Amino acid sequence: VHQNKLDFFCKLGYGKQDICKVLENLGQEALEDDVLKELIRMGRKPQALESQAQLSSLKLVARGSCSTSPGLKWLEEDDSDPSNHLRPIVIDGSNVAMSHGNKEVFSCWGIQLAVDWFRERGHTYIKVFVPLWRKEPPRQDSPIADQHILEELEKQSILVYTPSRKVKGKRVVCYDDRYIVKVAYEKDGVIVSNDHYRDLQNENPEWKWFIEQRLLMYSFVSNRFMPPDDPLGRHGPTLSNFLSKKPVLPEPKWQPCPYGKKCTYGNKCKFYHPEKPHQAQLSVADELRAKIGVPLSLGKEAEKHNCLP
C-alpha cells in the first residue's frame, strides 16, 4: 500500500521525502485525498511545476509557420568571431584578370577588385594563384596592366605564384588550375573562376563534386566585381549561405489558410488564420491541458501510462 501511494504521488510530481513525511504523520492507511490536502497545506508543489515556473512561458506561434525560432539565427554560435564562419577563398588570378581585361589584357586591377570585395565581407583567408611568368616584363603578345598590384598582393601573402621555368629557350609551366582546385578542396573553401575545370573533374570524382558545388562565377560591371546572388541556381542557397560554413535559417513564413473564415478544421487546421491571432503550435490535447492548468509533462506521462498493456 505504501509503495502504491508513493508511486502515485511521484507521478504527480511530488518528491519522495515529502510524501514519506506526510504518510508518517497521517498513517499508512490515510486516504489519497487527505495526503494530497496535506501536501498542498505544506506548500509543496510538484517538481514539474517548479521547473516549469523557472522556464519562460510557452511561446505561441501561428499555425503554418515553418519554424518556431524567431528571426535569423546561426545553427551554432560557438565562436564569437564572425570571420570563423566564412569559407576560405581561392581565386583563379589568370581567369579574373583576363575577364576584367576583356580577354585581351591581363588586368591586375581586376584581381584587386575581387580581393577587396571578399575583404569587405570579412573573409580572412584569401589566396590568388598566378603563373610565375607573369612577373616578366609585358610583351606585345601578352600585355599586362597594373603589374605593380601583383607585387603588393605578394607582400600581403595573398598572391601565390605557380612554378614555371625555361628549358632550352622554351617555357615550362606547371598547371595552375590543379593548384587552385587542390588548395580549395583541402581548405573546404570556394573557387572564384568562370572556368569549369572539366579536365580536372574527369580526373578525380571527389574534385568533380567539389567543383560543381563550390565554384563561384562572377561578372565585372563598370569596374565592379559582382558574383551572382544564387550561385547554384534559383533553388540553391543564397550567396551569403554559399560563402558561409554555417548557413542562416530562413525567416518563418506564415501560410494563410486557403479556406479563410469558411475553414471547418478549427484548432486542427495547420494554416494561419488572421482572425485567430493566438494560435499555438501545440496539439489539441496540449492546448486543452494548458487551458485547465495541467502541466504538459504530466499529461504525457498519463498518455504513456494508458498506452501500456
UniProtKB/TrEMBL annotation:
The keyword Transport does not apply. Belongs to the ZC3H12 family. Keywords: Endonuclease, Hydrolase, Magnesium, Metal-binding, Nuclease, Zinc, Zinc-finger. A zinc finger (C3H1-type) spans 251-276. GO terms for molecular function: hydrolase activity; mRNA binding; RNA endonuclease activity; zinc ion binding. The gene is Zc3h12d. InterPro entries: Rege-1_UBA-like, RNase_Zc3h12_NYN, ZC3H12/N4BP1_RNase_Reg, Znf_CCCH. Pfam families: RNase_Zc3h12a, UBA_6. This is ZC12D ribonuclease. One of its GO terms (cellular component) is cytoplasmic ribonucleoprotein granule. PANTHER family: N4BP1-RELATED, RIBONUCLEASE ZC3H12D-RELATED. It comes from Rostratula benghalensis.
